[in-house]
C-alpha cells in the first residue's frame, strides 16, 4: 500500500498494489497468507519500495529548506519548522504503552505503526508515528530491532536499525569526550602547580592572554568579576584552576553501543604515562547516557546547550557538584550534538510519515522518544490529526516516566493511552512456564488455555489502574498471534472493559497492516474525544525525594509494601537534597520483567520490599534516578545472540537476518 498525503485537502489517496492480483481469489488468499507467514520482516520491508524522502516531505507540508536529506529514504528536519508553524493548533497526542512484557516483547512498536497506518491509509486522518532509535545492543543481542514487524513496520528496516543518521554515535562521542575531560583534569591538577595550570589554561597567544567565554562564565559563578587575566590574585587563580574533583564521587561513565558485560567494571589509568592515577570505572550502554536523555527532553538548541552545561559529573572535595560547564566542555558537546538534535523523517510500509529520534531505554532511563519530534509532528498533522508515540516496556515504567518526566518538560497533554497486551504474556502472568528468548514456546502458549489467560489478566488490570491514576482514557490493544484462540481473545477484551478500559480491541496489523488495526484506530479516535482529567502523580515542590520514591512510585505504582535504602542510597539522597536537587522528578531504574525488582515474579506481586541500592542524578536531563536492586546499566550478550543470523550479501550488499 502506498499513501499520498494530499496537502490541500488534508485527505489521503490510497493506492493498493498486491503481487498476486491476477490469480483467482482463493489462490490469491492462500498466496498472500503464505507470503505473510513465511517471510521475514526484512523480506517484507524489501518487497515495498519506499517513496523518495523528498516526496514524502513535500506531501506532509515540509519546505525544501526545512529538510537535510540522508540518502534516498531518510532526512533530518530542521527546528526552524516550529517557528513557521507556531500558530498552527496541535493535533491529538496518543501514547502507546504495555503490560509487563515477556523477554520477547509484546509488539508496542508494531501496534504504533499499525495504528498510524490505519488512521492515515484507511481512515483518511493525518497521523504521525514518533519512535525511538534502536540501540545496537538489542539489535545484535536478544530482542532484535525496533522497526515494528510484519506489515506494520518502518522501512527500510535495516537503515532504521543500523546507524540511522548517526545520532547514537554523536551521543557516544560527546559522552566520552566529557569522560576524558574529567580524568585528564584530575591528572593535570595532581601534577601541576597553580601557576603552571593557569599558564596552560589561559595561555599567551601572540603576546596576549585572554579568557574564553566559558572561562569568563566560570569566573562569574565563582564571584570573580574580572575579565583581565593579569589582574587575578593568587587566591583567585587557585580557585579558578582547581576543580578539586573527588575521584570517589565520579558518576560519569564512558559508553559504547554494544552489549558488553566485561565492561561493567574496569580499571583505568594503568599506563605509566598516567603517573599512578588509577581508579575503578565502568562502561554503560550508549542509550543510558544522560546525553541521550537530554536529547530526548530538550526543547531547543539553546535549551540543549544549557542542559549539557548542567550535567553533574562528580563532587569536589568540599561536597559541591562539579559540572560539564566547570570543565569547559559545554560548547564542544553542543557542537557534537548539533545535527543529532534534528528528528529523522522516515516512513511506514504504507507510506505514512514517521519521526525517529532519541532512544533512551525505559528500564535504565526514561524510555521515550524526543519532545522535539512530538512537537513538530503535532504541528504537521493539524488540529484533527494524531501523533502516536511509544513508551518503553510496561506502563509501570515507560508510561509513568512519560507522564511524570516527559510531559512536565514538554507541557504537552496526552489524549489517550493505548495499552498493548498479548495472550502469550497474560498466560505467563497467569502461571505459565517461563519464556526465554531463543527457546521454543511451551504448549501452554500455543494451545487454548482460558484459565491461564484469566489468571494472568491481573497484570493487565493493574496496568489499567496505573493508567487511570493519571486521568487519561485507556484503550487496550490486544496484539493477536496466530496461536490465539477466539475464546482467549474475547476473554481478554471482556476483562479489559470490565476493568475500566474505554475499549479493548483485537489487532491483526502484523499480518494485515493498517487494515488490521482499523478498529483500534476507531476506538482511539472516540477515546480522544472524551474529557481528559490528566494529572501528574506527584508534586515536585511539596514532596521530598524519598516520598516520591517510596509512597508514590514504589507503593502506588509498583504495589510494594515499602522500600529499603542502602546506606549509599540514603547518603546520595541527603547529598542531592542538600545540593538543591530535591525538587526534580524521579526516574526509577528497574527491571522491566516484573512489577517488582525480581524478574521471576510475574502477575501482580504484593508485600515485597523494594531495595534501592544506589541513587544517581541526571541534573542536565532533569531527574534523579534510583537503582533498584542489582539493575545494570550495561546489558550482556546471551549464549546465542542475534548476530549469528545477521549477514551481508557481498554481491547485492543486502543485509540478511535482521528482525
TrEMBL record:
MF annotations from Gene Ontology: ATP binding; formate-tetrahydrofolate ligase activity
Q: What is its EC number?
A: 6.3.4.3
Gene3D superfamilies per the UniProt record, alphabetical: 1.10.8.770, Formyltetrahydrofolate synthetase, domain 3, P-loop containing nucleotide triphosphate hydrolases
Q: What pathway does the annotation place this protein in?
A: One-carbon metabolism; tetrahydrofolate interconversion
Give the record's GO biological process terms. Answer: carboxylic acid biosynthetic process; tetrahydrofolate interconversion
One Pfam annotation reads FTHFS
> What CDD domains does the entry give?
FTHFS
Q: According to the UniProt record, what class of enzyme is this?
A: ligase
Keyword list, A-Z: ATP-binding, Ligase, Nucleotide-binding, One-carbon metabolism
Query: What superkingdom does the record give?
Result: Eukaryota
> Which InterPro entries does the entry mention?
Formate_THF_ligase, Formate_THF_ligase_CS, P-loop_NTPase
Q: Name one GO cellular component term.
A: cytoplasm
Task: Give the multimer and partner information.
Answer: Homodimer.
Family to which the UniProt record says this protein belongs = In the N-terminal section; belongs to the tetrahydrofolate dehydrogenase/cyclohydrolase family. In the C-terminal section; belongs to the formate--tetrahydrofolate ligase family.
Listed name of the protein: formate--tetrahydrofolate ligase
Amino acid at each position: 500500500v502506498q499513501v499520498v498525503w494530499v496537502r490541500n485537502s488534508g485527505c489521503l489517496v490510497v493506492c493498493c498494489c498486491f503481487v498476486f492480483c491476477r490469480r483467482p481469489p482463493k489462490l490469491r488468499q492462500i498466496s498472500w497468507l503464505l507470503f505473510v507467514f513465511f517471510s521475514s520482516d526484512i523480506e517484507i520491508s524489501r518487497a515495498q519500495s519506499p517513496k523518495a524522502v523528498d516526496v514524502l516531505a513535500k506531501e506532509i507540508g515540509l519546505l525544501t529548506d526545512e529538510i537535510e536529506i540522508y540518502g534516498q529514504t531518510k532526512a533530518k528536519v530542521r527546528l526552524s519548522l516550529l517557528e513557521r508553524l507556531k500558530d498552527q493548533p496541535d493535533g491529538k497526542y496518543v501514547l502507546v504503552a504495555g503490560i509487563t512484557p515477556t523477554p520477547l516483547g509484546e509488539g508496542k512498536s508494531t501496534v504504533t505503526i499499525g495504528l498510524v497506518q490505519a488512521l492515515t491509509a484507511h481512515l483518511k486522518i493525518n497521523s504521525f508515528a514518533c519512535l525511538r532509535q534502536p540501540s545496537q545492543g538489542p539489535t545484535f543481542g536478544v530482542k532484535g530491532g525496533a522497526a515494528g514487524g510484519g506489515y506494520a513496520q518502518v522501512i527500510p528496516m535495516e537503515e532504521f536499525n543500523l546507524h540511522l543518521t548517526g545520532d547514537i554515535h554523536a551521543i557516544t562521542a560527546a559522552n566520552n569526550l566529557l569522560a576524558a575531560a574529567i580524568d585528564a583534569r584530575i591528572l593535570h591538577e595532581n601534577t601541576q602547580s597553580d601557576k603552571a595550570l593557569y599558564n596552560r589554561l589561559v595561555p599567551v597567544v601572540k603576546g596576549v592572554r585572554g579568557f574564553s567565554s566559558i572561562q569568563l562564565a566560570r569566573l562569574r559563578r565563582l564571584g570573580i568579576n574580572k575579565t583581565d587575566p593579569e589582574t587575578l590574585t593568587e587566591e583567585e587563580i587557585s580557585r579558578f584552576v582547581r576543580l578539586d574533583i573527588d575521584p570517589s564521587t565520579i558518576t560519569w561513565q564512558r559508553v559504547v553501543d554494544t552489549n558488553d558485560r566485561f565492561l561493567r567494571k574496569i580499571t583505568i589509568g594503568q599506563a605509566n604515562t598516567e603517573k599512578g592515577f588509577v581508579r575503578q570505572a565502568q562502561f554503560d550502554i550508549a542509550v543510558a547516557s544522560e546525553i541521550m536523555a537530554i536529547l530526548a527532553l530538550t526543547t531547543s538548541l539553546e535549551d540543549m546547550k544549557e542542559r549539557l552545561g548542567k550535567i553533574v559529573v562528580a563532587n569536589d572535595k568540599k561536597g559541591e557538584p562539579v559540572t560539564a560547564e566547570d570543565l569547559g566542555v559545554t560548547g564542544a558537546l553542543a557542537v557534537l550534538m548539533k545535527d543529532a538534535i534534528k528528528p529523522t523523517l522516515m516512513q511506514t510500509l504504507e507510506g505514512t510519515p514517521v519521526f525517529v529520534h532519541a532512544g533512551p531505554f525505559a528500564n535504565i532511563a526514561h524510555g521515550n522518544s524526543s519532545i522535539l519530534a512530538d512537537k513538530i509532528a503535532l504541528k504537521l498533522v493539524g488540529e484533527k490529526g494524531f501523533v502516536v508515540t511509544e513508551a518503553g516496556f510496561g506502563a509501570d515504567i515507560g508510561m509513568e516516566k512519560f507522564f511524570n518526566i516527559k510531559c512536565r518538560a514538554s507541557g504537552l497533554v496526552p489524549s489517550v493511552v493505548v495499552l498493548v497486551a498479548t495472550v502469550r504474556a497474560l498466560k505467563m502472568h497467569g502461571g505459565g512456564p517461563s519464556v526465554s528468548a531463543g527457546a521454543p514456546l511451551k504448549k501452554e502458549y500455543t494451545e487454548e488455555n482460558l484459565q491461564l489467560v484469566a489468571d494472568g489478566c491481573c497484570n493487565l488490570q493493574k496496568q489499567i489502574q496505573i493508567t487511570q491514576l493519571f486521568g487519561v482514557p485507556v484503550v487496550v490493544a490486544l496484539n493477536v498471534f496466530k496461536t490465539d484462540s477466539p475464546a482467549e481473545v474475547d476473554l481478554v477484551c471482556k476483562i479489559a472493559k470490565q476493568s475500566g478500559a474505554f475499549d479493548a480491541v483485537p489487532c491483526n496489523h502484523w499480518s494485515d497492516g493498517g487494515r488490521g488495526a482499523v478498529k483500534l484506530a476507531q476506538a482511539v479516535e472516540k477515546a480522544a474525544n472524551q474529557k481528559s482529567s490528566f494529572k501528574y502523580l506527584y508534586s515536585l515542590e511539596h514532596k521530598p525525594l524519598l516520598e516520591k520514591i517510596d509512597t508514590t512510585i514504589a507503593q502506588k505504582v509498583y504495589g510494594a509494601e515499602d522500600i529499603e535504602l542502602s546506606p549509599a542510597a540514603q547518603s546520595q539522597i541527603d547529598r542531592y537534597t542538600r545540593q538543591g536537587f530535591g525538587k526534580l522528578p524521579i526516574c526509577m531504574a528497574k527491571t522491566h520483567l516484573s512489577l517488582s525488582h525480581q524478574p521471576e515474579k510475574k502477575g501482580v506481586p504484593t508485600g515485597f520490599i523494594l531495595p534501592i541500592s544506589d541513587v544517581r542524578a541526571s541534573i542536565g536531563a532533569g531527574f534523579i534516578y534510583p537503582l533498584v536492586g542489582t539493575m545494570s546499566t550495561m546489558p550482556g550478550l546471551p549464549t546465542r545472540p542475534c548476530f549469528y543470523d545477521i549477514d551481508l550479501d557481498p554481491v547485492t550488499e543486502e543485509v540478511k537476518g535482521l528482525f
